[in-house]
Amino acid sequence: MTDPTRQPSDPADPDRDAGPPSPPVAERRPVERTLFGDTVVDALGWLRDRDDPAVLAHLEAENVYTEAVLASVAELRRSLYDELKSRIKETDLSVPVRKDGWAYYSRTVEGLDYGIHCRRPVSPEATPAEIAALDPDDRADEVVLLDENTEAGDDEFFDIGPYDVSPDHRWLFWGWDRTGDERYTAMVRDLGTGRDGTERLTGISPGSAWALDNRTLFYLRPDATNRPYQVWRHVVGTDPADDALVFTEPDERYFVGVGLDKDHSYVHISASSKVTDEVWIIPADNPTAKPRPLASRREGVEYSAAHHGNQFVILTNDGDPDRFRVMVTPDDDTSAPAWQPLDIPPAPGDDPDSVIISDFDVAEDHLVLFERANGTTRIRVRRWADGSVVPIEQPEEVSTVWPGANPDYRTGTLRYGYSSMVTPASVFSVDLATGERTLLKQQEVLGDFDPERYRTERLWATADDGARVPISIVARRDRPADEPGPCLLYVYGAYEASMDPTFSSGRLSLLDRGFAFAIAHVRGGGEMGRRWYLGGKLEAKANTFGDTVACARHLIDAGVTSPDRLVVRGGSAGGLTVGAVLNQAPELFAAAVAEVPFVDALNSMLDATLPLTVTEWDEWGNPATEPIYRAMRAYAPYENVAPCSYPSVLATAGLNDTRVGYWEPAKWVQELRRLSTGDQPVLLWTDLGAGHGGPSGRYDALREEARVLAYILWVLGLTT
């Protein structure tokens, strides 16, 4: 595929005759790695040296090459961008959230990239529906707390991290990142005057908590690897040099967080690895008190806690690592031996192996349980008074519910979100005493969108070991059922994260062109309970990739699609899945989109100096041990590229990415081009001004999505 006579990182030759440009070829500087008797030569490791001028030159050349290859669809990209934008209500308002005498909300304005955060006074007698119906055009009593557009100025990247209003609603602690490296500068704004204080906290992490004196706040600092590991205490109006260190977590596996309890009783400091939790508490009315552990950490025991009355409510896997249950303990004796299980009866027909309590919310009269059952999310509510448990009904079988904004502890209503692959995101309020539901708002999709044109269902693939793998799929109802059509298969499969079936207006650009869109709910994710997650991590990670292959084959065997019309897409850990699957079964796919893909996993996990590596060992394993090394060596995409005919690939990267280094996709792309026996284009696009999440502005994000969609249509020959 590549021309060995070209100079490294040389962009397409403008003097070439007609024909596709030649891709950049990175210089090879071989370095050997030998571990457990296995010798590997990495000729491209030098690409991680940002100080080498050849690195930036290479990335720029890759961008030039990608633009040249996709030049023929430039007009299609513009059209897709206009299409994506046309469905969005550009000037819009979030559903206001009541907190004390204020309704807080954010709004967007046509033509502006970022949100504007506001509040207005609201009557305590106002119902949730009345608050939701506030006139978005009425600015008479609106107070603008923070206009991100003004703060961003002309910067290419802008992201808000800390954003925390004090309990008395006077102060706003807020911070920003202008590079994408996830280190924030923060200050305190007086919401009465709109002016920021002179003190600035630099290089901090998101996460904060106010004490009840409304002058003291707790914030986080990261270590050299960008791991939040310290909690500091600041007093408004004082020199940050005088701030007090409150808590330090020396174990590099643990991330630290901080937050104020919903009933304002305690400030919580959490120290969490991928498999173990510990919570420390400080009375919110005594911010200088020494933090005490709610319960000491025990390896493999996860827990989170919330205060209720004179007790703590705890969600934990203590006693059964495969399941979570709710416990209660007096607030004057919170050690693990004092924890007592709370009676929560199962729902009729539950399979205990596929049910997990994933989250909970505490109110004065109710405990809200967010659960997963048989691959679907649901909500059940337990009344403290009598222990009865009632479900919140969902109108569609293949759908998703999630917690909404519920800041008030003394409330009789619950706000939650609802969506399916054909139903736009909706915000509901339910009366917890009567069960009456009220739709507060549904995402408005502009244009001629009609949900009745589309259908969604749940399919099941069978993996090689017999595991049944769920697939959520959506397509137009008039899509021909008697012939395979184009299909995009999305996959993630890590960290117990669940890729739940929800609506996307951007997806309509494919569905209306005859595509089916499918989500593979593979092991490593949390869709089917804790065992589903454990069955796709560490030495069992190969199950993630086998499940993805099984889903692809099922879609092909069921006649939904065919190998020449199937595209696989995933990002970050999902990009690792994409890379591993292409090595395992390249013949199943016409193309792949791998966004900020974790494709050089083994080299990264061997380097403890990289951001987050040590904390990631609980997810992937430490390859300094032979069993993990052998497992990762067998699947790491970059190290397993082999001579075969690979499908076309579009990989993306962020130069300032602290989670997945830009060099991982850069190296992988080079190996794919070097070893592929086919002639399908392999492309790399690097955002030179952003990090892991890509561009920060909403319009730039739409442009990037238009690039991906145009590539998919182009590679399948569907541009007309």
Q: Any chance you could write out the topology, listing elements then pairs?
A:
Elements: E1 31-35, E2 38-42, H1 53-69, H2 74-86, E3 92-93, E4 97-99, E5 102-108, E6 116-121, H3 128-132, E7 143-147, H4 148-152, E8 159-165, E9 171-177, E10 184-190, E11 195-196, E12 201-210, E13 216-222, E14 228-235, E15 244-248, E16 255-260, E17 266-272, E18 277-283, E19 292-295, E20 303-308, E21 311-316, E22 325-330, E23 340-341, E24 355-362, E25 366-373, E26 376-383, E27 389-392, E28 399-403, E29 413-420, E30 426-431, E31 437-442, E32 454-462, E33 468-476, E34 487-491, H5 508-511, E35 516-520, H6 530-534, H7 542-557, E36 566-571, H8 573-584, E37 591-595, H9 601-605, H10 613-620, H11 626-635, E38 648-654, H12 663-675, E39 682-687, H13 698-715
Parallel strand pairs: 34-35, 34-36, 36-37, 37-38, 38-39
Antiparallel strand pairs: 1-2, 3-5, 4-5, 5-6, 6-7, 8-9, 9-10, 10-11, 10-12, 12-13, 13-14, 14-15, 16-17, 17-18, 18-19, 20-21, 21-22, 22-23, 24-25, 25-26, 26-27, 28-29, 29-30, 30-31, 32-33, 33-35
Which characteristics define this entry?
single chain; 720 residues; alpha+beta; Methylamine Dehydrogenase, Chain H; eight-stranded antiparallel beta sheet; eight-stranded mixed beta sheet; 13 helices; 39 strands
Describe this structure in words.
With 720 residues, the chain is α+β, with helices and mostly antiparallel strands. The chain folds into four domains: 90-154, no CATH class; 179-331, Prolyl oligopeptidase, N-terminal domain (Methylamine Dehydrogenase, Chain H); 343-443; 448-691, Alpha/Beta hydrolase fold, catalytic domain (Rossmann fold, 3-Layer(aba) Sandwich). Helices cover 18% and strands 33% of the residues. It has 13 helices and 39 strands. Strands 8, 9, 10, 11, 12, 13, 14 and 15 form an eight-stranded antiparallel beta sheet that branches. Helix 2 (74-86) crosses helix 13 (698-715) and helix 7 crosses helix 8 (573-584). The longest helix is centred in the last third of the chain and has 18 residues, at 698-715. The protein starts with 30 loop residues before the first strand and ends in a 5-residue tail after the last helix.
